[in-house]
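Chapter summary example: a protein plus pyridoxal-5'-phosphate.
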Amino acid sequence: MDSPHIMTTYGRYPLTLVRGDGAKVYDDQGREYLDFVAGIAVNTLGHNHPDLIGAITEQAQTMLHCSNLYHIPQQQQLATRLCQLSGLDRAFFCNSGAEANEAAIKLTRKFFFDQPSTRHTIITANQSFHGRLLATIAATGQEKVKVGFSPLPTGFIHVPLNDLDALSAAIDPSTAAILLEPLQGEGGVNLAHPDYLRGVRRLCDQQGLLLILDEIQTGIGRTGSMFAFEQAGICPDMLTLAKGLGGGVPIGALLATERVAASFTPGSHGSTFGGNPLSCAAANCVLEVIERDDLLTNVQQRSTQLITALQQLAMRGKGMVVRGQGLLLGLDCGQSVAEIITTCRQRGLLLLPAGPNVLRLLPPLTITRQEIDQAVEILTAVLKEYHWI
Ligand SMILES: *Cc1c(COP(=O)(O)O)cnc(C)c1O
């Protein structure tokens, strides 16, 4: 099934998905699967959502692309919406998560350069994931993404998550910003505790540092609030978004306060495709549907249902732990989950790992009670088969 003409950057599952409908996807043999991967937290509204198809179709019939040398109404509308929702003031649009973080890193450096100040170092957490570009692998707190790619941009250091003393001790006169995922996705579904986030906010305020939150996986309703940071009662200086924002159409965004955003001036950063009418029309539609259909309430209710079910499984097993928020949940099994994922796929349930030992569940925000029941039934049967419960 592998093409000899595609670079092997991915170890692919032996499966070709050709069609989707809501939380269900179909392979080239016509087999149906419950999609608890959702393109890795991308298909916010599930597959083939009629409103999203309508918004994209209408925009494609009007104008697909327009340079950022001109005003783009769909982009202005999206920026206004995202600022109203987040409490931040200005948006920069790009095409992916890594690009959004790259923009945040550049804006951090430019902000302190403008002070003027020599502060430039960004502190991130161990096990973090911030993308695959050179600066973002340097920012990522996992050695495996960096091997073979030296020399990397300098100016990044890593500390253990949820240890405020360690963070405090790592701050020195070169420190510019702290970059965190409120809930680490790729790194194993690890929550940054609300108390920790409030402490980090306080440290940043006391020492004049910027707090950057990477909500590329957690943003746009995934954790049960529009942004995960709301649950800690704080607000960052910068926020990065991507994955779920376009519901499947590529788009990334960096949001910042007016004070910080002022350091980007004409010529200091850019993107040819960033914030094009098509991707902004898609993102505007995603935000409208989340609000109109009260999907945050659905996320909260389905999350409670799924957490309860997973905790019952964990109680029956040995050393199993449930983690996460909303519909970004992890079942840490304490041993390799690769075979469980394969067998679940054969039984019609798509799941992801988060590190070697954690099953990650990321259904669309539109998932129904029945679909959660169905997924839990399949997972339960498979775990029983392996005598894990
Ligand atoms: C996926 C992800 C990224 C990278 O996004 P890309 O669109 O793949 O570049 C960065 N940060 C977090 C937290 C992510 O989950």
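Key point: The chain has a mean pLDDT of 98.
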